[in-house]
Each structure stands twice: as C-alpha cells, then as structure tokens.
Design goal:
alpha/beta, three-stranded antiparallel β-sheet, disordered C terminus, 9 strands, 197 residues, disordered N terminus, elongated, three-stranded parallel β-sheet, Arc Repressor Mutant, subunit A, 20% strand, single chain, 7 helices
C-alpha cells in the first residue's frame, strides 16, 4: 500500500485477505478504497497507474470506471481479487500493443475505450502522438490548434487541463515541462517506472 493511505483504506484492504496486497503489487495495480479514497483514485488515474477499487460493503458501486481499473466489494474471496487483477493484466497487455487513434469525428479510440474530444483537444493529442514521449513546444501546439493565434496567454493550459480529465483512466498521461511544452506518454505503467535514486 502506498504511503499516505488512510486507516480506513488499510481496514478495507485487510478485509480482502492476506495475499491480496501481494497479488496487486505483483500485477502493478494499486488497491484503492472506494468511496473513501476517491482523491487518491483520481491522482493514480492521472498518473496512468492501474487501480482495483475496494468497495465498502455499504457503499454504492462506482458508476463509471476507467479502462485501467476494476472493482470488487468487500468482504470477498482472494480468488475474486485474483480474477479482477488478471483481467486488469490482460487490459494492460492489450494497451501495450495498441496505439491511440483519433477519427474524423474527434473521437479517441484506445484499448477498446473511447473518449469524445473537442476539436482543440483532438488537434493537441494528434500533435503529441506524432512524437510520443517527447516534449512538444508550447508555440508549436498553439499554432497547430489556433493558426491565427491563441485566444489568450493561458488558452493552451485550459485545453490541457480539460484534456487530462478526459483522458483519466485511459492509460494516456500528459506530462508538462514547465514553460516549455507538453508530452503524451502512452500507458506509462507505474510498475515499470524507474525508481529515483
């Protein structure tokens, strides 16, 4: 379990049974208490970290889940957790071999999921996908979106902000290089990131 998790989260994780944390860690998936840890869920989604939501017995099930997350209600059997983690592993594997595509209607298709984008968001993603993982200069992105000039100094930041929310849970992460530009990482998995020394 990650540092900073609440004691309620620990209690819900404990209800899964011994071995669930080990299974999740092995699969590169974070266990997240639902609904008590929604903020952490959103942070992990923005970072492209796969999640298994641990739903409290008396809580409503999540109304929507990202492509890289699943849920299980407590109490549950360890084998049920294992099945959910196996499903997530298959999705993650498919995402590793898939490439995001934007159709003519500004719909992003990736890993069996779709997201409807605005024209500006579609142009931004297309420009970032042309050079995945590479910082693309702000000026280049602004001129691609607004050939006649950006409508304001922070217009690009607004598009990126809304786009990050739209992409949460799809395994696509937009990184920023302060003042320089942005990069799109296609399913940057938490478990595969090098550890800072």
């Amino acid at each position: 379990m990650s540092p900073g998790s609440s004691s309620e989260s620990r209690d819900e994780h404990d209800a899964l049974g011994v071995g669930s944390d080990v299974l999740a860690e092995h699969a590169g998936v974070e266990l997240v208490a639902w609904p008590t840890d929604e903020r952490r869920r959103q942070q992990l989604a923005r970072a492209g970290v796969p999640r298994l939501l641990i739903v409290a017995p008396d809580a409503e099930a999540p109304t929507s889940i990202g492509i890289d997350e699943d849920w299980v209600r407590t109490p549950c059997e360890t084998r049920d957790v294992a099945v959910r983690l196996e499903r997530l592993a298959r999705v993650i594997d498919r995402l590793r071999h898939d490439r995001p595509v934007i159709d003519t209607n500004h719909i992003l298709h990736y890993g069996g999921a779709t997201a409807v984008l605005s024209r500006a968001q579609a142009v931004l993603v297309t420009a970032l996908l042309d050079r995945p993982g590479t910082i693309v200069a702000r000026e280049s992105l602004e001129s691609a979106i607004w050939p006649d000039g950006a409508p304001g100094h922070r217009a690009l930041d607004g598009v990126v902000f809304r786009l990050r929310r739209r992409l949460a849970g799809l395994g696509l992460v937009i990184r920023s290089a302060h003042g320089r530009g942005f990069a799109l990482d296609v399913h940057e998995l938490h478990a595969e990131r090098p550890t800072a020394v």
